[in-house]
Amino acid sequence: MHDTSLAERDALKALPAVLGVVDSQGQTMVIIGPLVNEMYSEIMRQLENAPDGQTPDSGPAKPGDNAVAGAKAPKKSWFDKLLATISAIFTPYIPILATSGIIKGLIDILAQSGILPNTSNTYLILAGAGNALIYFFPILLAFTAAQKFGASPYIGAVIGAALMEPNITGITTTGNVIDFLGIHFTAMNFSSTVIPIILAIWAYSYLDKLLKRFLPKALQFIFVPFLSLLIMVPLTLMVFGPVGGFLANLVADGYEFFLNSNVIIFNAIFGALFIYVIMLGIHWVVLPLQLSYLAEHGMEYSLGSGGMGNYAVLGVCLAVMIISKNKEDRAMASSSAFVNFLSGVTEPGIYGVVMKNKKYFISLTLGGLAGGIVCGVTKTYITNFAFSGLLGLPAFLSSPTAVTYFIAVGVSLSVSFFTTILLSKQNINFKKPKA
Questions:
Q1: Looking at per-residue confidence, does 48 or 194 come out higher?
Q2: Residue 357 CB coordination number (10 Å)
Q3: How far is the C-alpha of 147 from the C-alpha of 199, rounded, in Å?
Q4: How far apart are CA 161 and CA 81, in angstroms?
Q5: Closest CA to 410 of 384, 375, 385
Q6: Number of Cβ within a 10 Å radius of residue 291
Q7: Is Phosphoprotein one of the keywords UniProt gives this record (predicted)?
Q8: Which run of H or of E encompasses 188?
Q9: DSSP SS3 for 183
Q10: What CA–CA distance (Å, rounded) separates 411 from 344?
Q11: Neighbouring-strand partners of residue 186
């Protein structure tokens, strides 16, 4: 939307399938939970079939309309722009990251139990499926980054692929000083990295615009990709790799300092507050740090403790399902609990249950905090990225600290469940009605 003030929020909230409306990052987000893919496909179908200059049910655009093409959108802060950029680059890969973690967790369990030897071809093929996304992340991130920055995603992907090409990886994975045209620089391994390729594609987007500005259109078809690759691949290796690596290490050092200062407080904070970070949409700032740490160390703490809020939401939903006298509230709570338990999707529970009663935020926070403290005290970590819930179970079971993780889950769920009941007690009649 060019002007978010035009959104009819009350009318949107009144729709049966809508769980809530949230303004964040300069956008108006309509929360519809598990129906999002179906709704998105239908909206896109209607927009694609609409005549030029006219959207479904809106009538033709008028010169005075704020929403016409070319109207100035409200100015966004640099932080909103950063969040929108990170979100656009990473969002397409989140479901694949989760399923990759499930695959890796499942084959690890099978290997540990002796059912599937880790030297067998079957194991190696499945391991390849689970490891591919993280290993080739520079290629995939280059594609979506180029889309976001307005350059060719295909050229962007090839720039990323060049960094993973065997001839280049053969000299960069050593970490030695190498040279290009006599210019010496320190090589770095780009596999599983995030920041260097995003910086490189950001720079490439400006080169792309520059080339299209000065090259005749007849020459652009060949010379834009030719010059882009010729310039950007060496520049990425010599400049953006080291600079991005330095920035990544700087951020990672700060993250590790916070973690190592007090692992209990670190996990308690993530347990209590990360669910709110997700609700505000600013988890995109944290997720790259978590994924980078996981890729580098093979384990990560905050992805475990941060998920405690999800189970706290589940605890609230289960309590409301039992204690509520309102049939619609019970139905919403039960369906939200089922979706959360199965797939770890919390939006129906947050917007359909928790946000209807401010007291439930106390339950949510205390439940997440309790689970986070348990994670911190027991130094619980995970070895694979996955969503919480039944479908992500193999990813969490494969961790050496799986037992303490599930103890933390039980604590988080129980605390939020019983706190919700206690806070709602004055509205419940536990006595049987007199005959």
A1: 194
A2: 18
A3: 14
A4: 27
A5: 375
A6: 20
A7: no
A8: none
A9: strand
A10: 17
A11: 177
Q: In the predicted model, what is the mean pLDDT of the chain?
A: 81
- Identify the pLDDT of residue 266: 92
The secondary structure element, H or E, covering residue 435 is none
Task: List C-alpha distances in Å: 155 to 148, 150, 196, 197.
Answer: 13, 12, 16, 13
pLDDT tier, 387 (very low <50, low <70, confident <90, very high otherwise) = confident
DSSP string, 363-412: HHHHHHHHHHHHHHHTT--BSS---SSGGGHHHHHTSTTHHHHHHHHHHH
Return d(Cα 301, Cα 362) in angstroms, integer: 24
CA dist., res. 264 & res. 29, Å (int): 34
Task: Compute the distance between CA of residue 69 and CA of residue 58 in angstroms, rounded to an integer.
Answer: 14
Domain range summary for the chain, segments of one domain joined by +: 4-59, 136-260, 262-427
184 three-class SS: strand
Residue 299 CA to residue 263 CA, distance in Å, equals 14
- Token digits of residue 310: 């999800």
**The two three-digit tokens of residue 30, written as one number:** 């309509």
The Cα 133–Cα 97 span in angstroms is 7
The pTM of the whole model exceeds 0.70:
no
Strand partners, 332: none
Least confident among 53-67, 189-203, 248-262, 342-356: 53-67
Distance of CA 165 to the CA centre of its chain: 28
pLDDT of 61: 46
When pLDDT is cut at 50, 70 and 90, the band that residue 76 belongs to is low
Given the structure tokens 């988080």, which residue do they identify?
A: 412
Token pair, residue 263, equals 């692992």
∠ CA 149-150-152 to the nearest 5 degrees? 110
Structure tokens at 150: 């307005």
Sign of CA dihedral 118, 121, 123, 128: positive
Q: Of 212-221, 279-288, 289-298, 403-412, give the lowest mean pLDDT range.
A: 279-288
Backbone angles phi, psi at 387, to 5 degrees: -75, 155
CA atoms within 13 A on the CB side of 59: 3
Tokens of 109: 């369990």
At position 327, the amino acid (one-letter code) is K
